[in-house]
Amino acid sequence: MSILDSYITTAPNPQSAVDLFAGEWSSQFPQGSGVVSTPGTAPLFEDPRVTWANTMFGGFAGKTVLELGPLELGHTYMLQQFGAASIDSVEANSRAFMKCLIAKEILKVDRANLMLGNFVEYLGTTQKQYDWVVASGVLYHMQQPLRV
User: Fold this and answer.
1) Domain assignment present for 2
2) Burial class (CB in 10 A: 0-12, 13-18, 19+), 90
3) Range of 143's domain?
4) pTM over 0.85
5) Per-residue pLDDT reduced to its tens digit, 49-105
6) Which of 17, 42, 74, 90 could anchor a disulfide with 119, C-beta 3.0 to 4.6 Å?
7) What CATH number does the domain containing 125 carry?
8) Counting beta carbons within 10 angstroms of the beta carbon of residue 11, is it exposed (0 to 12), middle (13 to 18) or buried (19 or more)?
């Protein structure tokens, strides 16, 4: 592969950014986004579990949220849609982090602060307090989940 193979020859469009990770997406972008992620079968941008939590626990509107492991930004997007004041999202996987940045730009998720790193280390160093912590799909990957 030559460095010249890394250039895009078409006019800028969101699909080109999504296609940088063609075949690697877990999440299906929300309807109406104008992009297709492949294989992208998980409806994480329209996840009923996040809707349920918003309804059952008094809502995310106006709240500060710490999100552990945003994967591809699906739940982050939903948290913003539900009115979260700010969302700090910590992702340890570098490729997932890059996909989050792409989704953030395409979907205009402007109340999220994405951070690349280990959330256990972050929790050990931050003094910041949050109204909510969202940890979906991460605790079972950990060697010491109770430490969180």
Assistant:
1) no
2) buried
3) 44-147
4) yes
5) 999 999 999 999 999 999 999 999 999 999 999 999 999 999 999 999 999 999 999
6) 90
7) 3.40.50.150
8) exposed
